[in-house]
Amino acid sequence: MSEMKTLLPGATLGLLGGGQLGRMFSQAAARMGYHVAVLEPGKNSPAGEVSLKQITRSYDDAEGLQTLAQCAQAVTTEFENVPAKSLAALAALGLPTAPHADAVAATQDRNVEKSFIERAGVPTAPHQAVKRIEDIESLSDDLFPGILKTARLGYDGKGQARVHSKAEAKTAWESFGRVDCVLEKMLALKTEVSVIICRNAAGDTAVFPVCENHHRSGILAYTVMPARISAELASRAQEYAEKIAHALDYVGVLCVEFFVLKDGTLVVNELAPRPHNSGHATIEACTTSQYEAQVRAMTGLPLGDTSLRTPAVMLNLLGDLWFDEEGKLRSPDWASVLAVPGAKLHLYGKAEPRRARKMGHVTVLGATRDEALERAREVARILNLPEPN
After folding, report:
1. What is the pLDDT along the chain (389 residues), one digit of tens a residue?
2. 18, 34, 118, 137: which has the fewest C-beta neighbours closer than 10 Å?
3. Contacts (Cβ under 8 Å, ≥6 apart) of 104
């Protein structure tokens, strides 16, 4: 891994990925006086729109990587499937990367990731790798009912199937194209939470308040910050996140997603080597946002105060909101949304609304968590979204 050195405002920061997380990173970097150069194959990307420069090349394009290395002084990522080999290539060109290639590679294969988490001394759900037909035949009956997941490239509930028997596991595995998978035992869940942690090259860490996450159709619908869990459980989740970040020798922002079981047990679901959707509310709710923390970590600056300033609820805005009952495009009632006290609108600059596409989010602040929730319910009613519980 290239050694991180202090980069002062005025430097150019490289970014692999041009999506909405990169957009918010670029906005944070600009506020601190940095420039951003984005490597992104898609034209008119959300991050490219607000950055100094976009290099429109694929993430593994040698010329694109060379151009990025020539104009940036450090590089980070905005989504989990950036090729780890690209980060290694940039490091070989002398460009510090945050995170480094080995850490990203460990999170890009669910079987590797789970083995790593367990070696770090952190619990995961019971599971077994499925790479061959023989692996299915040897599956323990205790793992059923379970969820078969592709080992690579799954997100927002994609590449997953609930299975109740070896026969169903075989059918699902074949439908996935016989790629490497993992079977995880279905557990009795109480809720899902996430911890976002930032770590620098010196090993210093800054941990954000625990987020409570609720999904619909595999996509994050809303997040409550701070999570409605006990202080003891929140502290344990943060401690687990720190153990994982140190074990990875991680530099940058890392999200650790957890299942809270009905018996109070806490197990890791998965890792995201980047800022996370559940951390959007940190922009307004915390003294330092996850995106500013990402800038601070990669530039060698102090990580900042991540404490909560005000409770918040984040509502994810999908492209479905832009369609009326007849399927015709319309504009959501943003004026009414912004009339709700504490409502903060973030739109990602995506030109074309599509169903299930993440188009933006609304963060709703309140003096108390209950007040933030009630205001978020009002926003949900305006937008015809299911109300947060």
Report:
1. 445 689 999 999 999 999 999 999 999 999 999 999 999 999 999 999 999 999 999 999 999 999 999 999 999 999 999 999 999 999 999 999 999 999 999 999 999 999 999 999 999 999 999 999 999 999 999 999 999 999 998 665 678 999 999 999 999 999 999 999 999 999 999 999 999 999 999 999 999 999 999 999 989 999 999 999 999 999 999 999 999 999 999 999 999 999 999 999 999 999 999 999 999 999 999 999 999 999 999 999 999 999 999 999 999 999 999 999 999 999 999 999 999 999 999 999 998 999 999 999 999 999 999 999 999 999 999 999 999 99
2. 137
3. 77, 80, 82, 84, 87, 273
Q: Rounded CA gap, 130 and 149, in Å?
A: 9
Whole-structure pTM value: 0.95
**Minimal CA–CA distance to 250: which of 285, 211, 293?**
293
In the chain, the amino acid numbered 382 is I
Neighbour tally for 174: CB within 10 Å: 11
| Phi, then psi, of 355 in degrees rounded to 5 | -60, 135
- Cβ partners under 8 Å of residue 76, min gap 6: 13, 14, 15, 16, 25, 97, 98, 99, 252, 294, 298
| Residue 350: both structure tokens together | 């995506």
What is d(CA 160, CA 151) in angstroms, rounded to the nearest whole number? 10
Strands (E), 202-334: 205-207, 211-216, 219-225, 252-261, 266-272, 312-318
Q: Is 153 left (phi over 0), alpha (psi -120 to 50) or beta?
A: left
Tokens of 73: 């002084």
Distance CA 114, CA 111 (A): 5
Amino acid code (one letter) for 69: A
